[in-house]
Write a structure and sequence with these properties.
Layout: H1 8-33, E1 37-43, H2 44-54, H3 58-68, E2 72-76, H4 80-86, E3 89-93, H5 94-103, H6 109-116, E4 124-129, H7 132-146, E5 151-156, E6 159-165, H8 168-173, H9 180-188, E7 192-196, H10 205-215, E8 220-223, H11 237-247, E9 251-254, H12 268-275, E10 280-284, H13 296-309, E11 312-317, H14 329-346, E12 350-351, H15 364-385, H16 387-390, H17 393-412, H18 417-445, H19 454-483, H20 486-489, H21 498-501, H22 504-516, H23 529-538, H24 544-562, H25 574-586, H26 593-611, H27 616-635, H28 644-685
Helix pairs in contact: 1-15, 1-19, 2-3, 3-14, 10-11, 11-12, 13-14, 15-17, 15-18, 18-19, 18-22, 18-27, 19-26, 19-27, 19-28, 22-27, 26-27, 26-28
């Protein structure tokens, strides 16, 4: 029988690297625990709309919103659509003035004289102010937005008027500037301002300074830029960085609709890097078309999961447009705010301006030790699938030295970004494979292969699953230790090898299995090896039913890979969504279905296959499926935005519940075999 020795020196270096990876993991956990403050925000205009719809004073709705837990109100740049509604300024199309003059509806003699003198043009817009502060700001903002050549100031009697060369309908929608009356009203009501300025066309440094000067004197929680560009793009970004630094402002990133990374605004990465990633927070808002479909309890759960699993620290909420049964619209929204606040505080969050990650970049030495450990694991795997290498340790040491130096030296020198990604990829694939291979070698060395009672079989399989899971968690520690830093926690950098981790561990385990077992006759000693067994498989005659089975396996594999991630477009059944919701309620972190329903039950059945002496081909298939669960446990940690403790608990829940489901499957299979045996005995007697 082929005997594969586990090189103790390689294992020692893996242990050393594990200690370094765990040290990085504990540091990361500490950083994550210090960012437990969430800003519950809502649009200021949304609350004003709610007040209008309920026929209540704005002050009353603002007071109730604050009591319900809202901490910041989002203030956007004003528009003339808003001015025409609130009466603080008026924009009139020149064509409308001319039409009123010719129809006799224009009564003001001063305007009549201007039209008679030909000074009013139909393709211009005329702006009149009715509030001193608003008019002062308009005289600053309109020339800055449009250019001095498009704005002319003149008087009509004792009143100043601006003539603007602009398309009227577009002018009404155009962003003009941050309104100080709204900023003051928000602060006076006891809220912070979530500022939402937009960029200028051909933005200049003085434009950027004007925006931030307007914000001076007000309590600002975060700045989240509106539109497809950050303020200052593309030529005045440094001014934006400097102005935000001077005011110690937090920069908010809007999470993308795919819930992966963030909405790509031009200049966003430059500003975040220049400002410092320790001044960046992630923002999420439930899509406008999705919110009406969610009941209050569902959307509250959404916020809790979002903040916990994706490190969202700005919850930008929207009002409900329709009331819940037996409640007014105001009561509906206040219950929504209050329940969200209570849910978050029950999970250990405080409510206030968004917390941000401290600058987290682990020690170069620790990271280098992690790289050395990954190199040792790769070489260890090679020695466990290549008999020639396993029997020649000096060649294994030489290979290890080459890999370790290539991986560790760039780390010590302060580089190695790509090496870290390769190390993470190796960790996600090699360690789950090593964990399963270790169990395969234990099976080959197992002396008592007689029939054992079902209770003992279940306990044996469960213990083996827990040991294998613990070994896979070594890979999880390595993966996290390879990547963990502030940029990954904020998703400026992401691990892009996730799809590969669904397939590669199966290939690695499959190679090791074929080196140890003959899948045709079950021999564990003189197997034909990987290539010969693959050749024998390819030479097998194929029946139509075999083709059908292979087709369904292929379809299942495609679905398995395609459904993973955020951009596959593969729909999830409503029944599965309900099952996921149940798991989210039942566990600290929802276990992954590919672990608790697929991988871990298959592991339990694989143990049964050995001890009940099922065909080796069946055992092989179950081992590959079991590997899916082990790979998934490690791959969970590739989602760096999810707190490391939550990823850890997710895997624990999956093992515990998966072992339970696997035990039930084992009992059902045993009963089925008993029934079949009795049926065959009855036919034989007859």
């Amino acid at each position: 029988m082929k005997v594969f020795k586990y090189n103790r020196w390689l294992i020692l270096f893996i242990v050393i690297g594990l200690v370094a990876a765990l040290a990085i993991g504990f540091q990361r956990h500490g950083v994550e625990q210090q960012t437990r403050q969430v800003d519950m925000a809502i649009d200021y205009e949304g609350l004003l709309e709610l007040a209008d719809r309920e026929g209540l004073p704005a002050e009353e709705v603002l007071r109730q919103a604050k009591e319900a837990g809202i901490t910041s109100l989002a203030v956007y740049e004003t528009t003339f659509k808003k001015f025409n509604e609130n009466g603080k300024a008026t924009a009139i199309a020149g064509s409308q003035l001319l039409a009123d003059y010719h129809s006799g509806r224009l009564a003001d003699p001063l305007w009549q004289n201007l039209i008679a003198a030909g000074k009013i043009k139909g393709n211009e817009v005329y702006v009149v102010g009715h509030d001193a502060q608003t008019w002062k700001e308009l005289k600053e903002d309109l020339p800055r937005r449009l250019g001095n050549d498009r704005v002319e100031l003149f008087t009509v009697g004792n009143e100043e008027v601006m003539a603007v060369k602009a398309h009227y309908e577009s002018f009404l929608k155009m962003n003009i500037g941050m309104p100080t009356d709204e900023l003051k009203a928000v602060n006076d009501a006891g809220f912070y301002v979530l500022a939402r300025p937009s960029n200028y066309d051909d933005c200049k440094p003085e434009d950027v300074k004007a925006v931030f000067d307007r914000l001076d004197g007000y309590k600002i929680s975060e700045v989240v830029f509106s539109g497809k560009q950050v303020l200052g793009a593309p030529k005045a970004l440094q001014t934006t960085i400097d102005e935000m630094k001077d005011r110690n402002l937090t920069f908010g990133l809007i999470e993308a609709t795919t819930q992966l990374q963030f909405f790509k605004q031009n200049g966003i990465e430059e500003v975040a890097k220049g400002l410092g990633y320790d001044k960046v927070a992630r923002l999420y808002s439930v899509p406008k078309d999705e919110q009406p479909k969610l009941k209050i309890d569902a959307i509250v759960e959404r916020w809790s999961n979002t903040d916990e699993e994706r490190n969202i620290r700005i919850d930008l909420m929207r009002i409900y447009d329709t009331p819940s049964p037996n409640m007014t619209l105001l009561e509906t929204n206040m219950k929504y705010f209050r329940d969200t606040h209570d849910k978050l505080t029950a999970h250990g969050y405080t409510i206030g301006p968004a917390a941000t990650f401290a600058s987290f970049y682990p020690s170069k030495v620790l990271r280098a030790l992690v790289m050395v450990g990954v190199a040792a694991a790769v070489v260890l795997y090679l020695t466990l699938v290549i008999p020639w290498l396993n029997g020649r340790p000096k060649y294994a040491y030489l290979l290890f030295a080459l890999f370790a130096l290539a991986a560790a030296v760039p780390m010590v020198m302060g580089n190695g970004t790509k090496i870290r990604v390769l190390a993470a990829l190796a960790s996600a694939n090699v360690f789950p494979a090593l964990a399963v291979i270790f169990q395969l070698d234990r099976i080959r060395a197992f002396k008592n292969k007689g029939t054992i009672a079902m209770p003992r079989l279940i306990v044996t399989a469960a213990l083996a699953l827990f040991v294998t899971g613990a070994m896979s968690y070594v890979g999880a520690a390595y993966l996290s230790g390879s990547l963990a830093d502030t940029e990954y926690l904020l998703e400026f950098q992401i691990f892009r090898g996730i799809k590969l981790t669904f397939v590669m561990p199966l290939i690695l385990v499959g190679i090791a299995f074929l080196q140890r077992f003959d899948i045709f006759d079950g021999k564990m000693d003189d197997t034909d090896g990987v290539l010969n067994q693959l050749k024998k498989i390819l030479d097998m005659p194929v029946r139509v039913k075999t083709l059908l089975v292979l087709f369904f396996v292929l379809v299942a594999g495609v679905i398995f890979v395609a459904r993973s991630g955020h951009t596959s477009g593969m729909p999830v059944a409503q029944s599965e969504l309900r099952f996921r919701a149940f798991l989210e309620q039942a566990f600290y972190a929802r276990p992954r279905t590919k672990e608790l329903l697929i991988g871990h039950p298959a592991f339990m059945l694989a143990a049964m296959a050995v001890l009940r002496k099922w065909p080796t081909m069946v055992f092989f298939a179950l081992v590959l499926v079991a590997t899916i669960g082990q790979g998934s446990m490690v791959e969970t940690f590739a989602h760096m935005r999810t707190p490391i403790y939550m990823s850890f608990m997710r895997g624990i829940g999956g093992i515990v519940m998966g072992a339970g489901i696997g035990a039930c499957a084992m009992v059902l299979v045993e009963l089925w075999q008993v029934i079949l045996a009795k049926a065959k005995g009855s036919r034989a007697d007859s």
